[in-house]
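#help-structures
NK: newbie question, is this the right format to request a structure? protein is Ribosomal RNA small subunit methyltransferase A
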Amino acid sequence: MSVKAKKHLGQHFLTDENIAKKIVDGLSFEGYSKVLEVGPGTGVLTKYLLEKDVQLYLAEIDTESIDYLKENYNQIDNEAFVGDFLKTDFSYLKKEPLAIIGNFPYNISSQILFKIVDHFEQIPEMVGMFQKEVAERTAAVPRTKDYGILSVLIQTYYDVKYLFTVHENVFNPPPKVKSGVIRLIRNPKNGLEGNEILFKQIVKAGFNQRRKKLSNALKILNIPENLKTHGFMDKRAEELSVEDFISLTNVWKNSVS
């Protein structure tokens, strides 16, 4: 049987075996024994993952792809399939560490990254292929046009490395844009002191009005009185480093506790 790429699922099947192996080899396979592949499709990454000494899970919602994988890879059983990655709660892992890998659907790539951040305590590592623009945003630095919510949230919890660019002609069907492969390795300590919710609120409010100074952009969060004259308030969100956002969050929290 064959699998037809479905536009509504954002499917573009990688056809270059060398690139597939290179993506899989981007994982260290150290410190965890379980790997979850998101969107395995026809198994171009799966076949190399099955060669590794790990327990493999597959997040796939395309029934045609699931049937193809079962038919062509007899090592895969029904328990390996966990459904929609964006809806999984990882309860099947019993809090064990899990690495994530995938040729991610472009239409939900940012949602996938935010899901990884939400479960950073359980996910020590990720290697994945995204639309090149999204991959570059994860690694962007302050005072650049690509630096934003995604950059700050990812870099707070993970060290980001842009591994390589993938051209359109190695996919079926070819996407209209280039792709980029990145690796995330979890930071041992981010310094947020348990203030994750406030941190995300500050980052999102700041960048939602990125042309305004933080003194205006953060009004929606009721800035504590003693912070209204803080040096950061005279800056725009894109001027603050990840460390600056963490520092601002901790000072803010201490002001209202």
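mod (FA): yep, format's fine, and the tokens are attached above. The chain has a mean pLDDT of 92.
NK: thank you!
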